[in-house]
Amino acid sequence: MDSKTLYAKAQTLMPGGVNSPLRACRYVNSEPVFIDRAEGAYLWDVEGRKYIDYVLSWGPMLLGHCDPSVAEAVYMAVNKGTSYGAPCYGEVALAEEIQKLIPSMEMMRMVSSGTEATMSALRLARGYTGRDKVVKFIGNYHGHNDAFLAAAGSAAAAVPGTPGVPEDIVRHTLLAHYNDLDKVREYFETRGGEIACVIVEPAAGNMGLVLPRDGFLQGLRDLCTEYGALLIFDEVITGFRLSPGGAQQRYGITPDLTTLGKIIGGGFPVGCYGGKREIMEHMAPCGGVFQAGTLSGNPVAMAAGLATLKGLQQCDYDALEARTRGLAEGLTEILRSKGQSVHLNQIASAFTIYFSDVPVTNMTESSACDADKYAAFWQQMMAQGIYLAPAGFECAFTSFVHTDEDFEKTLEAASKVQF
Q1: Rounded CA separation 254/101 (Å)
Q2: Which residue, 89, 168, 293, 405, shows the most beta carbons closer than 10 Å to its own?
Q3: Distances, alpha carbon 240 to alpha carbons 73, 171, 309, 326, 403, in Å
Q4: Minimal CA–CA distance to 120: which of 91, 83, 148?
């Protein structure tokens, strides 16, 4: 069955024919391609077409798809049972590995998604501080929890009114533009005693890749410390990608709580939140803040995550960053040679090329980019077997298994794009 037939059938069974809005490809004036399998740096659709994958399941497949060590760990775990609903060795081993790489996570709790991790971290921050307000940044996406859907980035940008979210909930969410430290300072100076936490993507990934200005993250750290609020780093995207210790290692800033996502499950549905012991001990059964989940610490996901983190520690991050920079700069040069106004944001193995006349430092500037130009670029790259995110406000990701030949083919494809 081909993608067109599958999509027609899917639309009778699921809203928009998809299980996550961005997959509908409406931002690029297209229909989704249905994937049949993945291996290494590649995807194959149901019609057998091969693509070089720069989405990588929205980031976590740093080792590539079907990494042999991860696959072996999964097979062994499955043969011992797929779900216990009880403690297992894997969750202890994975927690130890995470703590080794991210020391600020003195204690942690496994959950089943990044959304669940951020939702739980917010509840913990409120329970620990006895305050209700949360400062978040316009264009930062922290999952579809009610409190975070105020001015979220990514696919949520299509529903700015967030229907179904009570006003009584979002009134506790204080919004600031990413990189606007002065606005956050103003909130603390006027309402500091009400603010439980500031949550931030330390390098934003859901309005495209937007990097923090010098002093921005340290300023957040200082304000939270001064006013007794918690600083939460949402590292669902940046965790183990910006460095083996995530963005906090790269930038040298220690948050009070950290949230992680599917990379710690090797791509399986998993998340985690953790931080200072004195804060985490407010979670039940030690304290009164409640959160639970039957699939938390799932043995198969834990085995995949442990194999992934061990594998990443054998990889050369500096080399991949240099190669990724070469690819991203090469694409930028090609597009400029075609008369296009583009700006590049890049760090580690992630980048975004914006069709914009100005550098992009926040959601307002990201939203002003030329969506039609990106759609034209996406369609022509897909036709040549280059799989990019179906929206211009997402990141492109590379992996440790992308080859120089893959990058050369990508640059060659870009050279053939016409506007």
Answers
A1: 13
A2: 293
A3: 19, 33, 8, 21, 20
A4: 148
Q: What is the rounded CA–CA span in Å between residue 354 and residue 356?
A: 5
Q: Taking the domains of the chain in order of start, what are their residue ranges?
A: 3-62+316-415, 68-312
pTM recorded for the entire structure? 0.94
**How far apart are the C-alpha atoms of 14 and 172, rounded to whole Å?**
32
Selecting from 3.40.50.720, 3.40.630.30, 3.30.1360.120, 3.40.640.10, what CATH number does the domain 68-312 have? 3.40.640.10
| CB proximity list for 39: less than 8 A, separation 6 or greater | 64, 65, 66
Annotation: CATH topology of 3-62+316-415? Aspartate Aminotransferase, domain 1 (3.90.1150)
Going through 167-265 in order, the beta strands assigned E by DSSP cover 173-177, 195-200, 230-234, 257-260
Q: Report the C-alpha gap between 258 and 234 in whole angstroms.
A: 6
SS3 call for 8: helix
CA angle 263, 154, 233 (to 5 degrees): 50
Per-residue pLDDT of the chain (419 residues; tens, 9 = 90+): 899 999 999 999 999 999 998 899 999 999 999 999 999 999 999 999 999 999 999 999 999 999 999 999 999 999 999 999 999 999 999 999 999 999 999 999 999 999 999 999 999 999 999 999 999 999 898 988 877 876 544 444 444 456 777 777 778 889 999 999 999 999 999 999 999 999 999 999 999 999 999 999 999 999 999 999 999 999 999 999 999 999 999 999 999 999 999 999 999 999 999 999 999 999 999 999 999 999 999 999 999 999 999 999 999 999 999 999 999 999 999 999 999 999 999 999 999 999 999 999 999 999 999 999 999 999 999 999 999 999 998 999 999 999 999 999 999 999 999 99
Query: What are the structure tokens assigned to 93, written together?
Result: 């081993």
Cα–Cα distances in angstroms (integers) from residue 225 to residues 196, 197, 218, 303, 384, in the given order: 11, 10, 11, 36, 51
Which H or E element spans position 131? none
DSSP assignment letter at 203 = S
What CA–CA distance (Å, rounded) separates 230 from 127?
11
Please give the positions annotated as active site.
141, 234, 262
